[in-house]
Amino acid sequence: METQFLNTFVTVVEQGSMAAAARVLNITPAAVAQQIRTVERELGTSLIARVGRTVSMTEEGARILQRARELLRGVADLRSIANDSAVSGELHLGACPTALAGMLPDILARMVEQFPEINVFIRPGYSAELYRAVETGELDAALVLQAPFTLPKTCDWQLLREEPLVVIAPQSMAGRDPHELLANEPLIRYDRNQWGGRLADDYLRRAGIVPRERFELNGLNAIAVMVDRGLGVSLVPDWARPWPEGLRLVRLPLPDAGEPRRIGIVWSRSSVRIRLVNVLLEESRKTMQ
């Protein structure tokens, strides 16, 4: 069986449609459909049910999905093992939203310049789910927030950046006290379901501030735009650039800001691509110096 066609099946499932899979794979939707039919013919069963422009897995497709992913990962591992004398192969990497837009592009630029034979598959996601993916072996490493729990012995973590809490406010409020702003201006709250949002919530509790909540969301760039539009102030980690262009904001430091949000790399010590992980760690350290 052609493993590329099997990869097409997995991509269709993950993307939810033939057209979306075609864009990811850089082939035509007709080619996607043909490859799926070839896999189905070789396995002797239907894997995909087509419903209008979307698709869903059949029961038979659901049975083989995990095994298909494991097989594709095994094939990718062969490249790393076969090229053990050189730094090459495919690294499976996750990244949380702020790392994906902020630190990761600079790190990857260094890696590609120094080791052009490395390919990187990147999975965006939130930190909690990326930790699980590293622990289960789906990913070799991930740029994530520091976990509020003890890591399993199979994983390790390296700090890259600390982000203290700051108040962001419209530029016109530059001379005001940050606590006074949090107590009296509408608050655009960083989502308390997220680890960084919990740090902000803990700070408000310690400071005895009961804010006038207006919005709550998980999206630091969106929060910054809302503050710029005069919708309120916010208490957020001082996250890495780039920020949206043209914003007229001030960042006000806090007295006794408490624990910062920490971003780093978690990785699996048992990955067959540990040489590539070590390259990632080294280039990350150099980038963040």
Descriptive terms for the model:
289 residues; alpha/beta; Arc Repressor Mutant, subunit A; D-Maltodextrin-Binding Protein, domain 2; five-stranded mixed β-sheet; three-stranded antiparallel β-sheet; 11 helices; 45% helix; elongated
Helix and strand topology:
Layout: H1 3-15, H2 18-25, H3 29-43, E1 48-51, E2 54-57, H4 59-82, E3 89-95, H5 97-101, H6 104-114, E4 118-124, H7 127-136, E5 141-145, E6 155-163, E7 165-170, H8 178-184, E8 186-190, H9 195-207, E9 212-217, H10 220-228, E10 234-237, E11 249-253, E12 261-268, H11 274-288
Question: Could you please describe the fold and organization of this structure?
Answer:
The protein is 45% helix and 24% strand. The chain is of the alpha/beta class and 289 residues long. It folds into three domains: 1-82, Arc Repressor Mutant, subunit A (Orthogonal Bundle); 87-161 and 261-289, D-Maltodextrin-Binding Protein, domain 2 (3-Layer(aba) Sandwich), CATH 3.40.190.10; 165-259, D-Maltodextrin-Binding Protein, domain 2 (3-Layer(aba) Sandwich), CATH 3.40.190. It has a five-stranded mixed β-sheet with strand order 4-3-5-12-6, with helices on both faces. It has a three-stranded antiparallel β-sheet with strand order 10-7-11, sandwiched between helices. Helix 1 crosses helix 3 and helix 2 (18-25) crosses helix 3. The mean pLDDT is 88.
